[in-house]
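User: Hi! Is it possible to get a structure for several chains at once, not just one? Here's what I have:
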Amino acid sequence: MTATVDAGTRRVTTAKAISEGIAQEMRSNPDVFVMGEDVGPYGGIFGSTGGLFEEFGSARIVDTPISETGFIGAGIGAAVEGMRPVVELMFVDFFGVCFDQIYNHMAKIHYESGGNVKVPMVIMTAVGGGYSDAAQHSQCLWATFAHMPGMKVVAPSNPYDAKGLMISAIRDDNPVIFMFHKGVMGLPWMAKNPRSIGPVPEEEYTVPIGKAAIAHEGSDVTVVSVSMSVQHCLDVAEELEGTTSVEVIDLRSIVPLDREAILTSVAKTGKLVIVDEDYKSFGLSGEIIATIADKDPSLLKAPVERVCYPDIPVPYARVLEYEALPTRDKIKAAIAKVTA
Amino acid sequence: MVDNEQRIEFFRQMARIRAYEAALQANYHADKTPQWDIGAGLIPGEMHLAAGQEPVAVGLCANLVKDDAITGPHRPHHLALAKGVDINKMTAEIYGRDTGLSHGKGGHMHLFDPEQHFSCSGIIGQGMPVAVGQAMAFARRGTDNVAVAVAGEGAANQGAFHEALNLAAMWKLPVIFIIEDNDWAISVARDTATPIKDGSLRGTAYGMPSQRVEGNDVEMIYEACKTAVDRARAGGGPTLLEIHTVRLWGHFEGDAQAYRGEELNEAAERDPLPAYEQRLISAGILTEESAAAIKAEAEAEVNAAIEFAKSSPEPKPSDAYLHVFA
Ligand SMILES: Cc1ncc(C[n+]2csc(CCOP(=O)(O)OP(=O)(O)O)c2C)c(N)n1
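Assistant: Yes, the chains can be modeled jointly so their relative placement is included. Here is the combined structure:
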């Protein structure tokens, strides 16, 4: 569950970690190529393909027109013929224009074919808000993808996991949705938590898909989170050291969900807070609670607290958006409530 | 034919839009220093400005009335202003204030003004079918109103554009599709995104009158739009116009535009505003003084709108939960 490779001392941004992971796979595997809007000379709007065009050129780093159904479908076609495309959907919110290819095709072909056709592709996509990009450019939506069988879904919270998960995703024989929160990318033009820049080994390594990490060990309360919110949870856990012993579980993968890691931690603490920037209802937080209810509700010594995105579209004005977003203060209040 | 009074009005409208975009640009960046942060300042978030594209909005909207509809793209200010959206409410929306068009819920990419039948969307190409539906409503109710869908040339590679064209042509609806070809879709050049040099071919393919308009000239754009709008009002069905214009600034504010290279200097030379001003002065329609007065008036109006926005109250945090359902 914890890192198997010594991270070393080199510190890079999550964006750099992702592009480095892709580059290393491209060097060793000629079947890997990248396709998407502004992935070429621009290097990806959020830097996920920085430097790749310079090394691999336009034959393998392909800028596309704004035709998501077309180029995601093309990714599927290339994948079923044995290539390993990494296709960028610039913001996850744009899934609406291409979800048929994603869900009715990419995710179902392996099953429909009775296991005879594999679709080894990666869709990488930016998620999350916090900078007033409003209703159509700020959602997380991982539960939307996770709800539908056939796709793995990962969402790293730091550079180390991002590189390792990207390499795992490219090598995986299944379609993988790789969701990077804009706030974890370490972008020079967005406020960031220092945790978005961190130690990353130069060599190739994998982080297993479907394995959570104990990001901070503790015994009083379990805080389960994913992606950007993990950074807030870690800030809070460190701040509370000495008063409340907080165990932070970074899910890293949503599909498959590491239910064992959640159950083990809750069995230890008996208290649970879930922090999720995706919509509250019908989503990840409910699934986590159901996991415990299914297995052994008596593990819980107090009602669960959920710090999730309320069931509203993302508003533009900062005061409105921060009313809705998970914040450190809300996480602290939730921890205080379950441990009271 | 365009008369001199109209020419002065065209100039006034274009100067007003330019003053607006310039003021927003200055204000947007003013409080994002020293460490530039997209989420900071009184105007946070993405900002797509339309400097260079004023002739499209002004030439088009001179043919429209209040009850005609526009669905605009993520780069909407020029269209909103030319259509008649209230400058104060729009600016307050961009500042995230309670007095804004949407009480701060929408922001600059999601401006909604039902009075002017104006809306826009940040999802590329997706306003096009909506305009088809507005035209359906007008036709069913027997009005002579028209709906206009405006999008960039990048959007013409999106499926929704093609479906919308086919529907409008099939049902002979009063829709005008306007493609603003500013040569770029973020960093992707038009010529690398489609082999079609003349986008009017796409309208022809769906059996509708179509035209590519070169020159970024407000008078030529006005004439082309007039033909299209008149035809739609008279029940003659849809038109596609691809208008070659120019994106003078970055795709969004903060875009370093390294990908543009030399073309950026050429683009600056294609700025339609000084060109039109000079033309009207040379023709004796404006003088240096009257042109300066028009620009000063525009700046004053824009500054007043920004003052209105800045002095307006923010929404209450709990307002976030309002308006999910009617
Ligand atoms: C469906 C969808 N895909 C991608 C984007 C990201 N995006 C925003 S603006 C833009 C370029 C649009 O180019 P164009 O339509 O030519 O308009 P312009 O920006 O040049 O005005 C892109 C790709 C989006 N908003 N929606």
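Chain B touches chain A through 49 residues (CB under 8 Å). The pocket of thiamine diphosphate is lined by residues A 37, 66, 68, 90, 94, 97; B 73-75, 122-124, 151-155, 182, 184-186, 247, 251 (CB under 6 Å).

User: Great, thank you!
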